[in-house]
Design a protein that fits this description.
6 helices; single chain; alpha+beta; 16-stranded antiparallel barrel
Length: 416
C-alpha cells in the first residue's frame, strides 16, 4: 500500500496571489520537507506490517499442509531423529541360575543358591559406513552388584571396500576362543581371558583367513620396569563352512600371560614390589583352538598355556609354576518336542593351577554334561552337572581333603 504525495500546487491554491516575502517562502519549504519525512515514516511502517502479514499467512499455510498430511512439528528434526535411531542397535541377555553343590572335603559342606548370574546390555551405533561405536554393560554375580562398562571401543572398518579394520578402546583381546556348551566357564577361559584398553589392527578376508595384532599397557609389570605400552599379542585363524560342515581353527600369542584377568589378580597380591605386585620377567602365552560342526554334531578343542615357568611366589605359592588348561567338548543338536535342543559332554584339565594356595577357584580336572532347550523364542532353559577334582597341593592351605565336588546348575536365560 502506497500513500500519494500532496502536490505543491494544491497546497498553494488558497494562498494570496500577491507577492510573498522571502521569509514566508522559507517557512513554507521547511513545512513541506517535514511533511515528506512524516509520509516516508508512515510508508516504512506500512511496509513492515505488510511483510509481517505475509509471513503469518505463509506459516499458517504450512501448518494446514502438515495437518492435512498427518504430520506436525519440525519435519527436518524428525527426519534426523529417525536416521539416528536407525543407526543404533541394542541387545542383551539376562541369566538366572539355581545351583546346588555337594562337596567331599572341598567347600566343607553342601550349599544351594538362586542368583541373578548375568545381565548384559550392548549398544552399537554406526552413523557412517566406516565408523561404529560399541558399548557393553555387564553385571555378574561375582562383581558385588556392580554394573560395569565391560567393553567400549571404536571400530573403523568397511568390509565392502577393504578387509582391514582397526579397533580402539576397552575390549577382550583375541587370545583364546573359549566357546563352550556348558553353563560354567571353561578352564581355558579361567586361565587366559584378558580384557584391556588396546589399539588393535586386523583383517578378515573373504576366503576365511583372519588375524590381528594389538598393543596395550598391562598392569602386571616387570620388576623395576617403567609403566609403558610394552604388552602385545597376535592371532591368526581360518574359518570356512557350508550347510553340512563348518571349521574354525586358530592360534594366539600374548607376550605377558600374567595380564589375564585371573592371573592379574594373583600377581597384584604377591607383594614382590612393595605394596603392589610384579613379576621378574614377562612370561608369554599361547592358545590353540579347533571348532567344527559336522551335520548335527559339534566338536570343540582348546588349549591355553604359559610358555615358561613363573618364578617362585609370583603366583602366590613357593614353587615355579607353568599354568595350562585344556577343554574338550562334544555336542549333538536335535529337536525335543518341537523345540531346538542340545546335549553335550565335556572334559577339562589343568596343570600348575593351584594358584594362591588358599584358593579353591581352580580345579585339576572335571567331567561335565549339559542339556539346553529353547522353550520359547529367545528363551533357553539349560542344566549342567560337573564333577571336579581339586589339587592335593591345596590341602594344607584349606585345611581339608579338597578332594572332589559335584555341582548341579539350572539356568534360565533370555536374549533380547
Amino acid at each position: 500500500m502506497k500513500l500519494k504525495p500532496i502536490a505543491l500546487a494544491v497546497m498553494l491554491t488558497g494562498m494570496s496571489a500577491q507577492p510573498v516575502m522571502a521569509d514566508d517562502m522559507s517557512d513554507l519549504k521547511a513545512q513541506l520537507k517535514a511533511m515528506q519525512q512524516q509520509m516516508q515514516m508512515m510508508q516504512n511502517k506500512l511496509d513492515a506490517q505488510e511483510a509481517a502479514l505475509k509471513k503469518q499467512q505463509q506459516v499458517a499455510t504450512e501448518i494446514k499442509h502438515q495437518q492435512a498430511s498427518g504430520h506436525t512439528g519440525d519435519t527436518t528434526t524428525k527426519r534426523v531423529a529417525h536416521e539416528v535411531a536407525d543407526s543404533i542397535s541394542m541387545g542383551g541377555v539376562i541369566e538366572v541360575v539355581t545351583s546346588k553343590t555337594n562337596s567331599d572335603g572341598w567347600g566343607g559342606d553342601t550349599a544351594s543358591d538362586i542368583v541373578l548370574d548375568t545381565f548384559e546390555l550392548g549398544i552399537e551405533a554406526s552413523a557412517s559406513e566406516w565408523v561404529s561405536g560399541s558399548v557393553l554393560f555387564l553385571y555378574e554375580d561375582a562383581d558385588d552388584d556392580n554394573l560395569n562398562v565391560d567393553e567400549a571401543f571404536i571400530t573403523i572398518a568397511n568390509s565392502e571396500v577393504t578387509p582391514f579394520y582397526g579397533s580402539f578402546g576397552r575390549l577382550y583381546v583375541p587370545f583364546g576362543n573359549f566357546e563352550s556348551h556348558m553353563i560354567s566357564d571353561p578352564a581355558t577361559l579361567t586361565l587366559g581371558e584378558t580384557r584391556e584398553d588396546v589399539v588393535q589392527f586386523g583383517f578378515e578376508s573373504e576366503d576365511g583367513l583372519y588375524g590381528s595384532a594389538y598393543v596395550f599397557n598391562g598392569d602386571a609389570d616387570e620388576l623395576n620396569d617403567d609403566d609403558t605400552i610394552d604388552n602385545y599379542g597376535l592371532n591368526l585363524g581360518y574359518a570356512m563352512g557350508n550347510d553340512d560342515f563348518d571349521l574354525d581353527v586358530g592360534v594366539g600369542y600374548i607376550n605377558n600371560i600374567a595380564t589375564s584377568d585371573s592371573l592379574q589378580d594373583i600377581v597384584d597380591g604377591n607383594g614382590l614390589c612393595g605394596s603392589g605386585g610384579c613379576i621378574k620377567d614377562y612370561v608369554g602365552g599361547m592358545s590353540f583352538h579347533a571348532i567344527t560342526n559336522i551335520g548335527q554334531f559339534n566338536l570343540i578343542g582348546e588349549y591355553v598355556t604359559a610358555m615358561d615357568e613363573f618364578e617362585m611366589n609370583e603366583l602366590g605359592v613357593g614353587e615355579e609354576l607353568k599354568p595350562r588348561a585344556w577343554n574338550i567338548e562334544g555336542a549333538y543338536n536335535f529337536e525335543l518336542a518341537g523345540k531346538d535342543a542340545t546335549v553335550a559332554l565335556g572334559y577339562q584339565k589343568t596343570k600348575d593351577m593351584y594358584l594362591d594356595n588358599s584358593s579353591t577357584d581352580f580345579f585339576e580336572k572335571a567331567w561335565l554334561a549339559s542339556i539346553s532347550v529353547g522353550i520359547y523364542e529367545n528363551t533357553t532353559l539349560a542344566a549342567e552337572w560337573r564333577h571336579a577334582d581339586g589339587y592335593s597341593e591345596t590341602e594344607a592351605a584349606v585345611g581339608n581333603d579338597y578332594d572332589d565336588e559335584d555341582l548341579l546348575k539350572l539356568k534360565l536365560s533370555y536374549d533380547f
